[in-house]
Design goal:
alpha+beta; Alpha-Beta Plaits; 3 helices
């Protein structure tokens, strides 16, 4: 199962990078495969595993903000494996060439 998670605290301004970095730390600590996107984070795993991570992330942000909007989009395909990479690879195969995508690069150098 692939879940796209977006957590937005309302009424706290537009600069929430530090909060999101803390949420991403929770996701990273889960050990589940994930990918940060410009507008959310995709997490791959079983229902119970992913939903436990989603709850931890939502609860973390809720502890900092009185109003939080959490949005989920779920792709649940029988036999789906490595959807984080396979979904992109399928489009690249159809296009007949590699495409620019967020999975293949990091925005900053460490």
């Amino acid at each position: 199962m692939l879940v796209e998670l977006s957590i937005n605290p309302l009424g706290r301004g537009t600069h929430i990078s530090k909060d999101l970095a803390e949420i991403l730390q929770l996701i990273d600590e889960s050990g589940l495969p994930y990918c940060l996107t410009p507008s959310g984070t995709c997490i791959e795993g079983g229902w119970d595993e992913v939903m436990a991570v989603v709850k931890r992330c939502h609860d973390r942000e809720r502890s900092l903000s009185s109003h939080v909007m959490t949005t989920l989009r779920i792709e649940d395909e029988e036999g789906g494996v490595d959807k984080l990479n396979e979904n992109i690879a399928a489009v690249e195969r159809a296009a007949g060439r590699p495409l620019r995508n967020i999975v293949a690069r990091s925005a900053i150098k460490f």
